[in-house]
Amino acid sequence: MTAQDTSAGSTVSSPGGAPADGLSAGADASPLDTVAPDSRRPSESTIRIGLVLPDVMGTYGDDGNSLVLRQRLRWRGHDAEIVRITLDDEVPDSCDIYTVGGGEDAAQKLAARHLSDSPGLQRAVSRGVPVLAICAGMQVFGEWFLASDGSRSRGLGLLDITTSPQASRSIGELVVEPQLAGLTQPLTGFENHMGATVLGSDAAALGRVLHGVGNGVPADPSAAPSAASTTAAGTSAFAGASSSASAGSRVEGVVQGSIIATYMHGPVLARNPEFADLLLCRALGVDSLPPVDVPAVEQLRRERIATARR
Q1: Which fold has domain 37-309?
Q2: Other CB atoms within 10 A of residue 290 CB
Q3: For residue 61, is it left (φ>0), alpha (ψ between -120 and 50) or beta?
């Protein structure tokens, strides 16, 4: 890979050659290398990516989102490291961006309890630090979520959403037309969830479902807020309430404040580089980043979207 100029408008070429300037120090490191929450930041310019509770919320490979963020920073000459935050750690509020993955019912309850007891993430969100939450991570960030056994757990209250079981599990390819400023390309991912997430008036959908289920429909309509509630984008929070509704009437994901949440696995940022760069722009406080040319990613996107449309 070569990267002679990281100013906006120039293109960083795809991997395959010599390391880009600023990457040589980590060139021989394992892609899974992480640092502890109490470690010192190597320099003031180092970007710290908080990987939250991968020991319990990493069932579907969502840890890969933090790897994507780190690599896309390094390709552009930024020093970056992943801070691995487990159940044994206090959650720091000092990271520049955070990612949270998915997990099963028991893991969700552990995560909700730990993040409530150690509220560093909540302090970071209050300052506007960007956060990506996937699947169960999204549910934990809500007001409450119902487990498959019917028990209700209190969430962190960071998102105006509630989650209860669907009549059947949603599994398969998911393609979404984004409704978030800065995203112009369809989003692609793989969904695998039993939960149906309903948005309250303070939350907006990430996008409109083109293929797949997305946020889903509660099996028990009484578990959802009033159908009159709407998203910040003006879309009915209970859009697609009929199980026979077309994909185009359904919504996916949640956007509220500095948090972007979705049911898309993949990892979602590996499939959607524009999405990854949007998060990085927010973390860096810039309007744009130099493009990175990775043909394999575009090929993956084309294949997954074509598969979903068959």
Answers
A1: Rossmann fold (3.40.50)
A2: 17
A3: left
Full-model pTM? 0.86
Residue 296 and residue 16 in contact, taking contact as beta carbons nearer than 8 Å: no
How far, in Å, CA of 178 to CA of 8, rounded? 24
Strands 80-85 and 47-52: parallel
In this predicted model, what pLDDT tens digit does every residue of 247-279 receive, in sequence order?
A: 556 999 999 999 999 999 999 999 999 999 999
Phi, psi of 124 (to 5 degrees): -65, -45
Domain-wise residue ranges, the chain: 37-309
Summarised one tens digit per residue, pLDDT across range 168-208 is 999 999 999 999 999 999 999 999 999 999 999 999 999 99
**3-class DSSP assignment, residue 298:** helix
Q: Tokens 């992943």 map to which residue?
A: 82
What is d(CA 214, CA 197) in angstroms, rounded to the nearest whole number? 9
Angle between helical axes of 64-75 and 273-284 (0-180°, round to 10): 70
Q: Name the β-bridge partners of 172.
A: 191
Cα distances (angstroms) measured from residue 217 to each of 110, 188, 191, 193: 25, 20, 14, 12
